[in-house]
Amino acid sequence: MKNRKEKKAKSFKFIALLVLLIVCVFGGTSVFFAMNGKIKIGNKNNQQNNNEVVNTQPEENTDEIVENIEDETQKGDTKINVLVMGTDKVGLHSDVDFVVSFDTETKKMSLLSIPRDTKVVMTDEMIQSLLDRDREQFIPNAKGVRGQCKLTEVYAYAGDGYRDQFVKMAIEDLLGIEIDHYVTVDLQGFKNIVDAFGGVDMVVQERLYYSDPAQDLYIDLYPGYQHLDGDKAEQLVRYRDGYIQKDIKRIQVQQDFLSEFLKKVTSTDNIIKNLPEIITTAIKYTKTDISITDAIKYSKYISDIDMENVTMETIPGEGGSYYTPDMEAVKEIVDRIFYDIIPESETAQEETGELSEVSDSKNLNIEVANGTMTNGMAGKKRDMLEKEGYTVSGISTYKGQKQEATRIVVKEEGQGNDLVKYFVNANVEVDSELVGDGCDIKIIVGYSEN
Questions:
Q1: Residues 86 and 148 in one domain
Q2: Which range, 251-260, 325-334, 394-403, is most confident?
Q3: Residue 52: closest CA among 293, 288, 275, 294
């Protein structure tokens, strides 16, 4: 009897974490509890209302499911990819879009964000779906390109019952990957879940103020370490107009919030106590094709959540009226995250043994220089790197021209590559003279980090 109770407790804890992370727009860790299965465009059985949780499987006995967990890794595919979408207040745009990939073999998880204004082109299948439903007037045509629009607009053009699938297909086409499942959540659900877990304590980096009565959006946050309840958390993750990098900076802040929130969630003892509110919130504000039944099958992965094995990145590109992806750089990131393909240059270095001696920058002295006009950037990055185990020998103000992208300046070819993931669109360059004698690596922080 005791074993059965223990199993139930573990099951309920898992369900609570799953629902929590689904409801949170930034809850990527729930994604690896998915099962194979696709929703096809035009399948009326899968046209769900915005406030429904999709559950295509009949309910089963929870204990039996836990006792008979299948090992998906034996099927040969160790990657599970899930698209997470956060909708605006009226539910017509996907303002937050990212794909989370969990490797059931290595236990590593990667989150790849796609900015809301990313330029995408609808596939022929998507356009045909609109034509079949007499929605020809909703086929965008930007600059003479049929089907071209911003990623956030795809959700609106798709129409009821097709919104999630359209965004999923657009991102699959953009990245060249297969997405197993989707999760969609609205703002109210996000706020309620943050409140259910007592909020999050973190540093707000700068003064954030914005007022838009038309959207009923009021943002008023001061810099410093503070407690964020659901309302303040929403303000933090929605702010973007005052940033030089607009949505790119907002994504970085969202990822910072996600990191702090997951640390609290995965270590809290209050999950069971908050379970009723979490479940209620999920049902009301979340839409997904991951059923609770399917999720329980993979409850064994809950013990594998480790923030040390989580990386968060944004597809590289250039901003403007559209965010235009750098497809060559995007391919490198996609190859690495989703296909475990290492660039040939790195592979050659590994084979010759050159990379092994210099690939770990934690053994080197790093100087961080502020190449922006924003005070405190060097100190902020120093704290972040030291937290990750790197040695920062000092910080300074870069005396040269202010930088757009962060430069990781090294003395020898092959150094600094492990630092790239901590910055936005950072480049590694070899210039021993610029590095100087006082350190091994000099990081010049650019405006892209703002």
A1: yes
A2: 325-334
A3: 288
